[in-house]
Structure prediction request, 241 residues.
Amino acid sequence: MGFLNKLLSSEGPRKPKVKFDLQKCKVLLKGGENRIRLQKSKLANSVKLQQREVAVLLEGGKDELARIRAEQMVRDELLIESYEIVEVLCETLLTRHNLLALNFHATKENPYPPLPPEIAEAVCSIAFASCRLDASELQTLTEMLASRFGPELIDSACAGQPSQRVWGVNSLVNPRLYSKLLYSVPDGNVVLQKLQDIADMFQLEWKAPAEFEELKDHSVLDSTASTPVFSGNAQRARLSD
Prediction:
């Protein structure tokens, strides 16, 4: 069971397993940024190979199989875009890392310091992404952030609750990142357009068959969807024990 599933199935308050350390946070951010950049490059190369494979399928009249491959391409392209967003967020938090260590007076009602608004989106978005991307550095960082700002706030971000208020602070997951990582089935119109673009790219005389037209009526990539999409081995992700 992955980290996100453990969060959703947990009962009662939990205690973070990793203590907050500002210098370790910086190291984890740099390592996570490098890993995300490498994964983005690999996935971009994979998409190029998929384009040629889809073109071969279209040329051979295997339209249904090409459509399925095109769906995977759309998901991978959304993932590439999410990598780019996470990369920027990591750089943002690195630049403003001193805000992570600001000292506040804890109270009995709230033993954790409030999350500074200047880094709220970066912190919550990285936590959200760490549960859905295969990046162990970001998963460890998320647990460290939970020990700093409280597990309730960080867990709400991980679970995809961008508007939940914890200790008077909004869990502000970046809306673009939220939309790109949350949905699993691409919009039918987007898939059809992807097939047509590939056909044009490889100068194929291809026209969508009549049965594909029904895909236009099944646009499931909308703001009401709730199925999370996981990348690679992310479902097996573990935080450090």
